[in-house]
Amino acid sequence: MADAQWVVFRLGHWQYAVSIARVKEVLKPIPSVRMPRVASFVRGLFNLRGQVMPLLDTKDRLGLVEETPAPAGKAAA
């Protein structure tokens, strides 16, 4: 059996990992257009190869507070 591969990322002070098999692609920052009257976690829209996509702030969507530090050396499950 092959070793598992993970994409590791941070949201606030917390570290998360997702199986690489569940990740479609990782993008560099892309300019986006802000939209009026949308949920606070919707940061805008961007064009991805001709398809309009929403830009979401996952930290805001999950209600993660920046001031709460993660325990040292701990990653989220």
Question: How is this structure best described in words?
Answer:
- This protein has 77 residues and is mainly beta.
- The protein has one domain (6-61).
- Helices cover 5% and strands 32% of the residues.
- It has one helix and four strands.
- It has one helix spanning 58-61; strands at 6-11, 14-19, 42-48, 51-56.
- The chain has a two-stranded antiparallel ribbon. Strands 3-4 form a two-stranded antiparallel sheet.
- β1 (6-11) and β2 form a beta hairpin.
- It is flat, with a radius of gyration of 15 Å.
Q: Can you describe this structure in just a few lines?
A:
The protein is mainly beta and 77 residues long. The protein is built from one helix and four strands, in the order E-E-E-E-H.
Range of helix content:
under 10%
Class inferred from helices and paired strands: mainly beta
> What is the count of β-strands?
4
Total number of helices = 1
Strand order of the largest sheet: 1-2
What distance lies between the first and last C-alpha atoms, to the nearest angstrom?
A: 22 Å
How many structurally independent domains? 1
Radius of gyration: 15 Å
Global mean pLDDT: 85
- Order of secondary-structure elements: EEEEH
Strand content: 25-35%
Could you describe the largest sheet, including whether it forms a barrel?
2 strands, antiparallel
Q: List unreliable stretches of 5+ residues.
A: none
The general outline is flat
